[in-house]
């Protein structure tokens, strides 16, 4: 028996994935009604310095990982025996639940996650409680540059980057001194974070590879 496929966490995940599918369909439908110039401007905000504008506009929408990526997170955390996990970009908590399930099945630990939007923080915390993993998860509200800049564990086993793409590289640099040989880093939608990808691919401190169609998987050496 494992936490990921067992009630109540599995039930909560199925509900959230269903809501996410509907939410993303509405979001892209709305996006399709906009003139092409506005669509391009909006997507530029998502990956640029004005990322807060984009994420404020998307505050009611799920910005979640896929089911396959969720399973990948669980597999990697279990294989790495991760007990100290950092997540950038909680949203409503789908990825957080996968990470928490792995940490629980590894014998316990802590997932520290951060989210910019207050509404999502509130709902994500409720989802953790309903899934029975609230004691394993700390969700910090605010800009990740601030929330992940203090009070972190001495050693980090696993990192998920799934927020504003322009912050992937600076957040990685913030966390580097707490990584160890074997720390795994997953960056979702990494094609929107060219500076980050360039760094992890050329640095002597990492081995990194594009994995699946939208994930960059790296290991600290």
From TrEMBL:
Biological process per Gene Ontology, one example term: methylation
PANTHER family, per the entry:
PUTATIVE (AFU_ORTHOLOGUE AFUA_6G01830)-RELATED (PTHR43167)
Q: Which Pfam families match?
A: Methyltransf_3
GO MF, one example: O-methyltransferase activity
Q: What is its EC number?
A: 2.1.1.-
SUPFAM superfamilies registered for this protein in UniProt = S-adenosyl-L-methionine-dependent methyltransferases
- Which superkingdom, per the lineage? Bacteria
Under the heading InterPro entries, the entry gives: SAM-dependent_MTases_sf (IPR029063), SAM_O-MeTrfase (IPR002935)
> What are the coiled-coil residue ranges?
none
Q: Which UniProt keywords apply?
A: Methyltransferase, S-adenosyl-L-methionine, Transferase
The name of this protein is: Putative O-methyltransferase
* Phylogenetic classification of the source organism: Bacteria, Pseudomonadati, Pseudomonadota, Gammaproteobacteria, Enterobacterales
Q: Establish whether keyword Oxidoreductase is in the entry.
A: no
